Amino acid sequence: DIQLTQSPSFLSTSVGDRVTITCRASQGISNYFAWYQQQPGKAPKLLIYAASTLQNGVPSRFSGSGSGTEFTLTISSLQPEDFATYYCQQLNSYPYTFGQGTKLEIK
Amino acid sequence: EVQLVESGGGLVQPGGSLRLSCAASGFSFVTYSMHWVRQAPGKGLEYISTISPNGGSTYYADSVKGRFTISRDNSKNTLYLQMGRLRAEDMAVYYCAREVQLEYNWFDPWGQGTLVTVSS
Prior knowledge:
A: mainly beta, six-stranded mixed β-sheet, four-stranded antiparallel β-sheet, 10 strands, B: mainly beta, seven-stranded mixed β-sheet, about 55% strand
């Protein structure tokens, strides 16, 4: 199975901050990679697919980069509605594993 | 509107069985692979099962293999997860998700989830 190591697990940040979350795959997965946002008590929501393509309707302050084994999600200027948990996922091979999540909290 | 709505969750005793359903609407259900993902209380997302568009291929995570069965009824636009020999560690919110597959692939949308509680 392909393991995803996501970091950090927890981040205390402020509105307006620039935030970067990293996900490392245990083997190369090309761009078969996605990022999701989950608000408390809600289902995950797709933010980015194919490592760097922004889903329709997602604000442009979100961006994704990387390929192969190293991927990043960047939020350029945090807004109050961005405080949530973020998950990465590889879709290169079964099982389609997830990272352990990064929870953003207000400092 | 593309929508997935899960149902069938509830309280079940250890060793018991439960069947979850996921009703799809707003898209051509028969052309998409579908998935189940679960989330234990306070924990992260765990991918557990996949079924191909025609139902001919399935995949299970080791944690549920031999106990859970994924199926679909394309005439009813519905995905199922038959869960058996349930354990305390199966307690979670269960989500269904559609896999969009073009050059790359991703899960969108997800259902709202249904809670399965395993307790005596």
